[in-house]
Amino acid sequence: MKLGKSTRLWRTDGFVAVVAIVAMLVLHLSTDAIGTIERRFYDYASTSTARQPSGQIAVIAIDDQSIANIGRWPWSRDVLARMIDTLAQAKAKTIVLTTFFFEPQVDRGLRYIQTMKGILAAQPPAEDGTLPNQPLLDLIREAETALDTDAQLAQSLAQAGNVLLPSLFDLGEPRGNPDTELPAFAQRSAIEEFEGFSIPAVRAQEPLAALGEAAAGVGHLNQLQDMDGALRREVLLVNYYGKAIPSMALLAALHSLNLKVSDVKLHPGEAVQIGKLRITTDGAAMMLPQFYPMQAGRGAFPVDSFFDVLNGKIPASKYAGKIVVIGATAAGVGTQFAAPGSPALSPAETIAHVGSSILQEHFIVQPGWAVGTTWLIGLLVCAYLVALLPKMSAGMSAGVTSVLFAGMLGSEFVLLSASALWLDLVFPAALLLWGHLALTTKRFLVTEAGKLKSDEESAETNRMMGLALQGQGQLDMAFDRFRRVPVSEELMGNLYNLALDFERKRQFNKAQAVYEHMAGFDAGYKDLQTKLNRAKNLSETVMLGGGGSHPGGALLLDGGAVEKPMLGRYQVEKELGKGAMGIVYLGRDPKIGRVVAIKTMALGDEFEGSELVDARERFFREAETAGRLQHQNIVTIFDAGEEHDLAYIAMEFLKGKDLTGYCKPDNLLPVSTVVSIVSRVAQALAYAHRAHVVHRDIKPANIMYELDSDTVKVTDFGIARITDSSKTKTGLVLGTPSFMSPEQLSGKKVDGRSDLYSLGVMLYQMLTAVLPFRGESMSELMYKIANEEASDVRTIRPELSAELAAVVACSMRKDPNTRYQDGDAFAQALQAAMGAPGTTTPSSPSTPAAPPTPPAPPPPQSAHPTPAGSNEKTSAFTAPGQHDTQPDFANTSTMQASTPDAAKGVQPDFEL
């Protein structure tokens, strides 16, 4: 039992979710994969900002153009001295040099000049006190000054009084005392700091003493890179044994605000404050500066060439009152770093970004609660994956996960870009996505494994079911089952035998379909091609009568051609469909070229003896009756005859399709079109009723309609009878249950008013797409038709007029005497309901005591007998390709019952 529970646990969605969560945590803690994605997202979101860089900062670049014109780097320091003099004269606020001056720059000739100067100075003076060779000594002193570039630079620094120089520190945790103390000039820029609110250092590299003494301040130029090599943080303070050295950017901001180092206030673990500017930092005094996005493919700050400024091409007045950062950008000179929004930034440009962030308080804040919030959201994601996601459907889970995933990343993006607040949500978002994919994959694999097993079992079940159906003679159903089975050699044998069975039944078009299905798997199977070609030749012809050898059958000629059979004077083209008692063919009169539909009935197969004689008489009597109906809205009967034991009726071949398709909710016709169609059917029935012919099976399937020509034809008078009360058998019920009148269901004698009731039901369905009476069983349906009133059509379509609703209700009244008494009255009422002039509106169905006044009593019954016992029906057929439904001969129910209760055991084709 415990083993079974353990096995089930391994298969649960919750267990898979837990495994996915653990795997993601291990990945996150052991690698930098998620961290890399987070940093990339941070770069994109933080630079998608409306913040603009400060206009008080400029960059002068030691670029390729400058090196090409001035000479190889490093230049003589008098060149830098000249630049400082130029900027100082232009009143630049602060000058920041990013070049390190750790070693003196000594000209090779300076030592010789100094030696010569010493020799000359050691000579005794003349009697008048003058030194010998004084002019030469003065020239040597001038040369010494020109060659001592360090002295020139120191002089320029001292004269400018606003130049900041960089220092560099080896970072690390001190383990003792320093090797050397900070020089006095460096301590002028340092802050006392013993609380650990800075990055510790163990060794310092300071500029030359002469230059450091002349400079306005010395800051550090240490830059910390993330694991991916990019710069995202600024180290504001480096602690050298209790002395916190500010960064170059911080020192430049201080100097530009006319503040001193003593004006810097430290808030350990929170912020560094200079004047009124409070810079939020982490616990190590590191800030997240705003790196401004590039503009039009260029950097955020304008960068001018050193050479252009030095030779006056760019006026120095441009830099008045600004912080000017001078640094190398040329290829191979200095170091460049990747940063948010830029693949490569020089130290000078980095100082410009950080300085602007400090002066404008454009830093990005990662609050202390951010880490806790990230893990809390991660825990909520874990709870969702373990507890909620397994209970959701695939569609719902995909929707919820998508919303949560987009919500987390969208929140981080908005906070970074709009509020400069960094909340790390990439990890919980990745956890959510990973867990969802793991669970979805598990479900898919389990489903596919189950589906594969189910498919194998289902395939064998379908094959065995197909064989059973084939053995019962239900070949169509057998083929349907075989098509659900993947084709194999074993199935090919089953299909081959099925095709032979179709051929034995002369259903060559179906045999062709089976052969084509087989050819898709193995076109060379046995004599498949020969069988297929033969079936194709025979699929468009027919075999008439009971035997394939009688004169009416199709003949195979030399070369495989087929001679088409004849029925009377009609050449049979192809089979259109089968019914319960006969087949309908497409035929053509070769003399006049008329295309007809030929309904046949093999009477000899259905009847024998006296019944055959009676059936033959009824068949031709029906043909004669229907043939007398010459009306533009009734299908025309051309001919009738008997040949080769086949009785046939040739009738008009109709285009268009029946009204069944227009009774569906998404395909209803306009109300005016429906009324027009029903009006014409009512007029056609009025004509038939005057000829004493009752249709008995009015329904959408028996009304043909061609939309383009607006043509309406009533078809299928095959169950019509010449009404004669003395000849009609009591209890004979003919028709389709849902459309039958109460008197027809009860087995009473019917007249034309029963057809009008059926027409009212059809009108109701064409207006609403539902039947007025529906039931779960035949008995329930019959009870509702006999005892319950139909609901008002306006309960389904409120936009219908009250007049039209009254017409529908009046046509379906239970008592025939309160309905419309003839089709013309029905048609007139419909026209009046649609506003046709010269007509009156029928009375409301809510007042059954006042139905439309019938123009005359019901017509007298014909003396012609009404034969009983026939349930075949004549159907009109469409041209190939115009109506894709098979002709239906089985949807007319014939029930022998003296009362409705007696019919409960019958299973007709009725609509629920």
Task: Name some characteristics of this structure.
single chain; 912 residues; alpha+beta; Serine Threonine Protein Phosphatase 5, Tetratricopeptide repeat; 5 domains; ten-stranded mixed β-sheet; 28 helices; elongated; disordered C terminus
Blueprint (SSEs and pairs):
Elements: H1 2-11, H2 13-30, H3 33-46, E1 57-62, H4 64-70, H5 77-89, E2 94-97, H6 110-122, H7 134-147, H8 149-160, E3 163-171, H9 184-187, E4 191-192, E5 199-205, H10 209-214, E6 217-220, E7 234-235, E8 237-240, E9 243-246, H11 248-256, E10 264-267, E11 271-274, E12 277-280, E13 286-287, E14 303-305, H12 306-310, E15 323-328, E16 337-339, E17 342-345, H13 347-360, H14 370-388, H15 394-419, H16 426-471, H17 475-482, H18 489-504, H19 508-519, H20 528-539, E18 555-556, E19 562-563, E20 566-567, E21 570-578, E22 583-589, E23 594-601, H21 603-606, H22 610-627, E24 637-643, E25 646-652, E26 657-658, H23 671-690, E27 693-694, E28 703-706, E29 711-714, E30 721-722, E31 732-735, H24 742-745, H25 752-768, H26 778-787, H27 802-811, H28 823-833, E32 893-896
Parallel strand pairs: 1-14, 1-15, 2-3, 2-15, 3-6, 5-8
Antiparallel strand pairs: 3-5, 4-9, 7-13, 8-9, 10-11, 11-12, 16-17, 18-19, 20-21, 21-22, 22-23, 23-25, 24-25, 26-28, 27-30, 28-29, 31-32
Region (Disordered): 834-912
EC number: 2.7.11.1
Binding site for ATP: 599
